Amino acid sequence: MKKVGIVMGSDSDLPVIQKATALLRELEIPFEVHVYSAHRTPLQAHDFAASAREKGFGVLIAAAGMAAHLAGAVAANTTLPVIGIPCKGPALEGLDALLSTVQMPSGIPVATVGIGGGANAALLAAQILAVEDAALAERLAAKRAADTAAVLQKDAGIAERL
Ligand code: RP5
Question: How far apart are CA 154 and CA 106, in angstroms?
Fold first, then answer.
């Protein structure tokens, strides 16, 4: 099975990444996590992206905050799909990272999830891998069904809470 490669710009992004790794574990998807920065360790970020396909990755997730160019820099060095997670920084509530990640110029796409969207990044990565993996598609469908049941249970109990 193809792996998910995860890279974050700083270990301060870890809480966001933990949302993704928890889901990948639940869905039994192998992953690898690194701290590489587009500006502090540009060579390592490049090498990770450029070698990802031959190392058995099927999709990459890149999380960064502030002037967040990590996802774009990773995407520039691979033709694997790249999912960007904008992380909240000390100013602007993450809007800086959101715009930096989502507003990629034409030619190098980054599929951007919401600010701090580690869970959706993992689910999107899983859905990409599930295109060619029927067993994973079944696990995803089972998770959807369980999530739906959980919401319906809340619906059934909401009147008692009012
Ligand atoms: C970005 O700068 C990182 O992705 C992080 O979100 C932000 C701050 O990094 P630290 O100063 O916490 O290392 O490159």
Answer: 43
Ligand 1: which residue has its CA nearest to atom 14?
9
In a 3-state reduction of DSSP, which class is residue 8? Answer: strand
pTM for this prediction? 0.97
**Pocket flag, ligand 1, residue 13 (CB < 6 Å):** yes
CA distance 56 to 162: 51
42 φψ region: left (φ > 0), alpha (ψ -120 to 50), beta (else): alpha
Which residues form the domain of 110?
3-133
Q: Which of 10, 36, 61, 93 to mutate to test the pocket of ligand 1 (most atoms within 8 A of CB)?
A: 10
CB of residue 45 inside a 6 A radius of ligand 1 = no
The number of folded domains in the chain is 1
Place of tokens 């890279």: 7
Question: Tens digit of pLDDT for each residue in 102-132?
Answer: 999 999 999 999 999 999 999 999 999 999 9
